[in-house]
């Protein structure tokens, strides 16, 4: 549905219409879509609007009221039309119990909508009605600007969120709640944390406006349901425990987890499901056992184990529970993290991790997925030997690779069948095994026949070493690799063949050549097990794991990786991700070649989550420790000498990413910038990770990092020194980036501001977080002043290395220039 | 109470004249041993019997005291007792079930002890009667199966397993135990699997279940189709296989732990005075023997699983969180053989040690042939600290165990092989074990060559161990040649070197390791020269070793080429630079400079090997092994089965 004409969910309006409270307003013919001011193209208008937000932000209640009424009218009109003409879609016929309606989205071609709606309608209806009543009191047609804005093509999700947050008018809120249906799913998804935080912490009207959309999306997507449930839990956690229990957020979370929001289409697919009991009642029984954690699995296994020699666990096909397997999966990953934390050494942790994962593998494939992935898939295997424990003092974050099979639709595609590990390897059997079938049948008729799933042809198997294929150029053309018959006695067949001679020098040369060709790998360090794993080029790793996987031959096989964090609050990370993402799109829009890499975050609870790892990147700490080189020398080693294209492009990447992250660090006040928190990727980009200290929070005992961002002499050396062109380019990029970011400040601030609602996160500590953030955009400065600011920040960061004092910028912000 | 009863039984046996107070159950047994039907006068006889506490000693003793003919006279009553036992197994009251199980044990054992010479068919007839045997055994197996699978008492299950073990080991040669034919038909394989797959039951009975399975698999292994073999070879349920692996791993690590305790205890007692061979001899006292033998059963189970089941290797390769670091890697196979091999110099009088050592090497051979296992062994991501029990020897100090490096498992296997090579050069030369040991190394190298695995291993230790072994063979030529064909072994060793020389580029970790290989060969050239003159001598005169020796001469061609090529170069280098003794670095320099003028001959089949095959070559060994295990299990069982007091208490409180 993502790219189809926007479908508008009309549940709330339809119900309102069907209800009694709303008095039908006089039918007003509306011309639509409302065109924006003539002659304005998109770009310029946008800038007008963003600049002029101050004026417009006073929302005229009347306009809102009008807008709302218009929507209602249209619904009514169209609904009548549907009823009269009988222009129903086939879907409507199937679902006769729902309120079917068709509505035109304000600025989009008409779209059909069908939605069956039961309990949800009532609440929404009442709220809409309430809003309508209130609105009637201040009814004046003073300004149609707001409406025109809302109806314009430029009204994007960012603005919608902003109005939803700022407007005190229930009518406007309800209207925007409906408008959410018009946006593309992925656009709204970006603001999901904001929407849910508003739902939890703001007043009822906002909540009522948001809820229908959330519920609708939950019905459509299981992944969306999961994300909502997790975020609702995490963002409710700062509330007092007593209020939390009865809060709206908790209720909605329960609703989602109760699986009542099953996608409607499943019902259609399974029409004759009458004997099935109410599915919401007994989720535990039907839970797909493979997704359970070890502890629970042992129980379920015992009860479910069929007494056959071979017991392929086939999924219970009738209506799998939607979220339970996934939650079990997450739970077992977290449990592993907790258990790892109790072990003293890295080595023990690594071994334990590998063995825990091998057990987890027994329960895969299952109806589980990695929420950080961008496509629908089923997890089929965790290559357990590849997992590594990451560097952390007391907690045990770990990185796992996950093999998945991509699928069209997670809900409808069935879980892939299990392929045993040994599929990849040979079939060694007892000498007389094939003939056994008959005799053993004769011998005992009571034997249960063993299900054999070895017969699908697509599966491939490689025989033992004898036939093992290695895709490497055959070095010895004369070697006897292809002789299948072997005997120890035939070693020196002096009489049979012409002797083949080889030069010892060639052997020695090949050895050194082959070793030279392998990319510089890191040495294994028991204290830093992740370094080697992360250094291996991603493509190389994918190829290697694919070769070793029984699922590797499938065309839709993909490899994902994820960092599991247990005991860490990732809500700040998520906030940072959003800000970075926003800045990235701003810079892209404004064509500033700054490079940053936002990495995906999955908040699971207030103290656990998952992170999408940055591939092909190792920390600068690891680089320096392993290579024992300065950063510049490492660049030269990895990419070639100063004049090579490889080096120059790596240097450019370095500069662009450095400038991007310097701005990020400045704007978000990212602290705790040590080399372990800065990654370097294979193309020369740096990537900052760990946004544990941002905005108002900073590590207490480390003194203060006064500089605006981290800029060491080593970094400057890579850029070619203080006088080089690249260093000027770096400063120029910073300036451009800052100007661009300033232009769209609201889009950035908005993200942070909404998340501050009801939050106890340290980054919001104090009362001036938002004000300080806004100040760092320096809205009032001229570009010349900004340039000076950048110069001073760079200068200050450089100087802070030697003097640890940084005051120039203080001057500036205090108005002394 | 129980003790009084027991004593009553014993007393009666020793002094019948004293007329002691007879237990009721003993009286009832006596009735059975009459020719008349005991239920004739008391119709509830059988019902009552199984309410009585079994007096195993008496029953067994009584059966034993009768000779074949006397026994035949009371055959009907025995048949009746057997049938009623089976009937009682189906009853609700656990006491009756327990008593029935124990009575069955006693019956089976008593009859067998008496009839050692008679055929299996006679025994079946004696116990059940030919006509009813089939139905009888079917009922028995079904009852046992349902008892084992039910959610019932654990001690009851344990007793069922004991009965089965008793049944299986009642003859020395398992294949002559004709009753097992019924166990083949009425399979309890699934019940065994269920025990292994279910953690609580696995913890309780895993060991017995695994031993039972290992024995059943060996019933007429080579003559007929054994359904347990068939079934075991296709099991693919990971939970079950994992369970089996765990049981084996735990048993083996327990053995390792015991050994270690002993070793430490011993060392603290005698300090450093006994850091020589005497120390290790001391360990091999009578007490230790038991654990070595129990170990055989579990090693056999491991072997059968590895050899028969293609999925088991994958399980081996997966570690289990329950297993700590102490027990070394989970994969019991590759490491645990360390103990019997690395620690015990098999002295000729100790058959069991030889058996264990051989079995361990066979297991390693199977593993080294398996691609998946190899992938696991060589996985750079899976690092283990393996503590090998190194024997204290005259010329080396005991290595500090504390700072073992963490390496891929194959390093430990190679270390173990090196350790074996170094420590077993003795007069009673274990030729067979050496051949297997070198084969394991060879198979591992073949894998590395094929898959281009560059293992960071100090190959030098292996090279010098191999050269030392060659030296040993030569210095003991006359003694060894009387017993063994030492040329096979010599050929294998030389070919290992050939493997390094011609294919070193595919699996050596660094160019300098190739240089080191040459250095080592040049350094030890005397040994190769001697070997060459020896094999040349034997291949030119027309003795029995002519052919074998000539093979070695041909295999030596490259090594001789290297020696002949570099030695003059080194001498001239020394002469030019006026150095009497070249340092290693200087030799390496000469080697590096002169590769290009050296031509080697490519030899055929260096990376080929003969696959392991049990049936053709090892059948006799396994027959003997199973016989020894059977005897041993039976002996241990006698003790266990008799001490079921706990069990009775458990049920008496329930009732």
UniProtKB/TrEMBL annotation, chain A:
Its EC number is 2.7.1.67. Transmembrane segments: none annotated. Residues 536-802 form the PI3K/PI4K catalytic domain. Residues 294-313 have a biased composition (Polar residues). GO terms for cellular component: Golgi membrane; mitochondrial outer membrane; rough endoplasmic reticulum membrane. Residues 117-137, 264-320 are annotated as: Disordered. Pfam families: PI3_PI4_kinase (PF00454), PI4KB-PIK1_PIK (PF21245). Residues 77-258 form the PIK helical domain. Its cofactor is Mn(2+); Mg(2+). GO terms for molecular function: 1-phosphatidylinositol 4-kinase activity; ATP binding. Belongs to the PI3/PI4-kinase family. Type III PI4K subfamily. This is Phosphatidylinositol 4-kinase beta.
């Amino acid at each position: 549905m993502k790219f189809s004409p926007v479908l508008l969910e009309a549940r709330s309006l339809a119900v309102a219409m069907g209800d009694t409270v709303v008095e039908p307003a006089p039918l007003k013919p509306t011309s639509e879509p409302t065109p924006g001011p003539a002659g304005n193209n998109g770009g310029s208008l946008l800038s007008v609007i963003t600049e002029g937000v101050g004026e417009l932000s006073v929302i005229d209640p009347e306009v809102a009221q009008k807008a709302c009424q218009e929507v209602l009218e249209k619904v009514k009109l169209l609904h009548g039309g549907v009823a009269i003409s009988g222009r129903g879609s086939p879907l409507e016929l199937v679902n006769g119990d729902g309120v079917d309606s068709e509505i035109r989205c304000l600025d989009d071609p008409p779209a059909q909508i069908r939605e069956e709606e039961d309990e949800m309608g009532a609440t929404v209806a009442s709220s809409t009605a309430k809003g309508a009543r209130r609105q009637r009191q201040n009814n004046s047609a003073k300004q149609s600007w707001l409406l025109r804005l809302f109806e314009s093509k430029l009204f994007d999700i960012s603005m919608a969120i902003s109005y939803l947050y700022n407007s005190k008018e229930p009518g406007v809120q309800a209207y925007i709640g409906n408008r959410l249906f018009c946006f593309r799913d992925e656009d709204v998804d970006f603001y999901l944390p904001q929407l849910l935080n508003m739902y939890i912490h703001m007043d009822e009207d906002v909540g009522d406006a948001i809820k229908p959309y959330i519920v609708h999306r939950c019905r459509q997507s299981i992944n969306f349901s999961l994300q909502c449930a997790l975020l609702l839990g995490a963002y409710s956690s700062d509330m007092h425990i007593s209020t939390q229990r009865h809060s709206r957020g908790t209720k909605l979370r329960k609703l989602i987890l109760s699986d009542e929001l099953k996608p409607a289409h499943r019902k259609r697919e399974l029409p004759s499901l009458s004997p099935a009991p109410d599915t919401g009642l007994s989720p535990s029984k039907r839970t797909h056992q493979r997704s359970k954690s070890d502890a629970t699995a042992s129980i379920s296994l015992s009860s479910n184990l069929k007494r056959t020699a071979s017991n392929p666990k086939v999924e219970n096909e009738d209506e799998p529970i939607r979220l339970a397997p996934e939650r079990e999966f997450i739970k077992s990953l977290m449990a592993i993290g907790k258990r790892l934390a109790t072990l003293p050494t890295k080595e023990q942790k690594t071994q334990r991790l590998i063995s825990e994962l091998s057990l987890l593998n027994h329960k895969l494939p299952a109806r589980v997925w990695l929420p950080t992935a961008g496509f629908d898939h089923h997890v089929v295997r965790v290559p357990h030997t590849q997992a590594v424990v990451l560097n952390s003092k007391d907690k045990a974050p770990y990185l796992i690779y996950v093999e998945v099979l991509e699928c069209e639709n997670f809900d409808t595609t069935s879980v892939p069948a299990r392929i045993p590990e040994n599929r990849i390897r040979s079939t060694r059997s007892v000498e007389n095994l094939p003939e056994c079938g008959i005799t053993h049948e004769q011998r005992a008729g009571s034997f249960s026949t063993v299900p054999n799933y070895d017969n699908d042809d697509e599966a491939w198997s490689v025989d033992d070493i004898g036939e093992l294929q290695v895709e490497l150029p055959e070095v010895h053309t004369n070697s006897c690799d292809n002789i299948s018959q072997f005997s120890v006695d035939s070693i020196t067949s002096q009489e049979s063949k012409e002797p083949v001679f080889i030069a010892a020098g060639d052997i020695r040369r090949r050895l050194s050549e082959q070793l030279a060709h392998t990319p510089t790998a890191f040495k294994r360090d028991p204290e830093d097990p992740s370094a080697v794993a992360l250094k291996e080029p991603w493509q190389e790793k994918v190829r290697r794991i694919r070769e070793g996987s029984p699922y590797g031959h499938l065309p839709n096989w993909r490899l994902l990786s994820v960092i599991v964090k247990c005991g860490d609050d990732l809500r700040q990370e998520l906030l940072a991700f959003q800000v970075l993402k926003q800045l990235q799109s701003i810079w892209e829009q404004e064509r500033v070649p700054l490079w940053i890499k936002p990495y995906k975050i999955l908040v699971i609870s207030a103290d656990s989550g998952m992170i999408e790892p940055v591939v092909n990147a190792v920390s600068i700490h690891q680089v320096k420790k392993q290579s024992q080189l300065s950063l510049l020398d490492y660049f030269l080693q990895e990419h070639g000498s100063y004049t090579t294209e490889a080096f120059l492009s790596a240097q450019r990447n370095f500069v662009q990413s450095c400038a991007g992250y310097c701005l990020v660090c400045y704007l978000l006040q990212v602290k705790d910038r040590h080399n372990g928190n800065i990654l370097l990727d294979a193309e020369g980009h740096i990537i900052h990770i760990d946004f544990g200290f941002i905005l108002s929070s900073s590590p207490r005992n480390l003194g203060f990092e006064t500089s605006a961002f981290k800029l060491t002499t080593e970094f400057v050396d890579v850029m070619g020194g203080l006088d080089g062109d690249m260093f000027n380019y770096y400063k120029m990029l910073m300036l451009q980036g800052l100007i661009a970011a300033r232009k769209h400040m609201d889009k950035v601030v908005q993200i942070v501001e909404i998340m501050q609602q009801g939050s106890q996160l340290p980054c919001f500590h104090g009362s001036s977080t938002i004000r300080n953030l806004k100040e760092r955009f320096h809205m009032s400065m001229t570009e010349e002043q900004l340039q000076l600011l950048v110069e001073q920040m760079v200068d200050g960061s450089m100087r802070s290395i030697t003097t640890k004092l940084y005051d120039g910028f203080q001057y500036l912000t205090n108005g002394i220039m | 109470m129980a003790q009084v009863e027991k004593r009553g039984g014993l007393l009666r046996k020793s002094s019948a004249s004293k007329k002691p107070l007879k237990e009721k159950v003993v009286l009832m047994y006596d009735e059975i041993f009459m020719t008349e039907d005991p239920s004739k006068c008391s119709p509830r006889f059988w019902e009552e019997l199984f309410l009585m506490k079994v007096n195993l000693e008496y029953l067994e003793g009584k059966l034993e005291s009768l000779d074949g003919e006397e026994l035949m006279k009371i055959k009907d009553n025995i048949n009746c007792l057997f049938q009623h036992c089976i009937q009682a197994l189906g009853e609700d009251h656990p006491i009756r079930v327990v008593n029935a199980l124990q009575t069955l044990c006693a019956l089976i054992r008593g009859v067998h002890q008496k009839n050692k010479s008679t055929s299996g068919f006679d025994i079946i007839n004696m116990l059940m009667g030919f006509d009813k045997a089939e139905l009888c055994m079917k009922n028995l197996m079904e009852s046992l199966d349902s008892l084992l699978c039910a959610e019932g008492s654990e001690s009851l299950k344990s007793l069922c397993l004991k009965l089965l073990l008793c049944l299986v080991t009642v003859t020395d040669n398992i294949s002559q135990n004709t009753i097992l034919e019924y166990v083949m038909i009425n399979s309890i394989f699934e019940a065994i699997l269920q025990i292994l797959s279910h953690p609580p039951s696995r913890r309780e009975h895993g060991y017995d279940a695994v031993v039972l399975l290992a024995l059943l698999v060996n019933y007429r292994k080579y003559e007929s189709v054994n359904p347990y073999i068939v079934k075991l070879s296709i099991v693919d349920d990971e939970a079950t296989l994992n369970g089996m692996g765990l049981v084996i791993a735990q048993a083996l690590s327990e053995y390792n732990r015991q050994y270690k305790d002993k070793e430490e205890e011993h060392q603290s007692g005698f300090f450093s005075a006994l850091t020589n061979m005497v120390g290790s001899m001391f360990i091999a006292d009578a007490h230790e023997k038991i654990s070595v033998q129990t170990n055989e059963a579990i090693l056999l189970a491991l072997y059968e699983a590895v050899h028969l089941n293609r999925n088991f290797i994958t399980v081996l390769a997966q570690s289990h969180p329950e297993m700590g670091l102490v027990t070394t890697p989970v994969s019991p196979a590759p490491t645990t053989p360390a103990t019997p091999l690395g620690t015990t110099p098999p002295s000729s009088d100790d058959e069991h040690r030889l058996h264990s050592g051989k079995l361990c090497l066979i297991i390693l051979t199977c593993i080294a042939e398996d691609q998946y296992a190899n992938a696991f062994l060589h996985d750079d991501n899976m690092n283990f600290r393996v503590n090998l029990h190194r024997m204290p020897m005259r010329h080396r100090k005991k290595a500090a165990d504390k700072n073992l490096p963490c390496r891929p498992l194959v390093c430990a296997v190679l270390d173990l092989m090196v350790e074996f090579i170094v420590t077993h050069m003795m007069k009673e030369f274990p030729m067979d074990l050496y051949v297997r040991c070198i084969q394991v190394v060879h198979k591992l190298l073949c894998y590395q060559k094929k898959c281009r695995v560059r293992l960071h291993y100090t190959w030098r230790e292996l090279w010098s161990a191999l050269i030392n072994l060659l030296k040993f063979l030569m210095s003991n030529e006359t003694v060894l040649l009387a017993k063994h064909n030492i040329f096979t072994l010599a050929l294998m060793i030389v070919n290992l070197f050939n493997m390094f020389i011609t294919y070193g580029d595919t699996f050596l970790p660094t160019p300098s390791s190739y240089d080191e290989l040459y250095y080592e060969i040049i350094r030890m050239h005397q040994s190769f020269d001697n070997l060459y003159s020896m094999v040349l001598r034997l291949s030119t005169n027309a003795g029995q070793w002519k052919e074998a020796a000539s093979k070695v001469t041909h295999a030596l061609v490259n090594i001789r080429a290297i020696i002949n090529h570099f030695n003059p170069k080194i001498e001239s280098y020394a002469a030019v630079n006026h150095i009497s003794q070249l340092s290693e670095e200087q030799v390496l320099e000469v080697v590096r400079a002169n590769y290009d003028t050296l031509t080697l001959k490519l030899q055929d089949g260096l990376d080929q090997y003969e696959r392991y095959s049990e049936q053709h070559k090892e059948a006799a060994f396994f027959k003997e092994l199973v016989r020894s295990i059977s005897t041993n299990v039976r002996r241990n069982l006698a003790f266990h089965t008799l001490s079921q007091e706990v069990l009775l208490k458990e049920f008496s409180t329930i009732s």
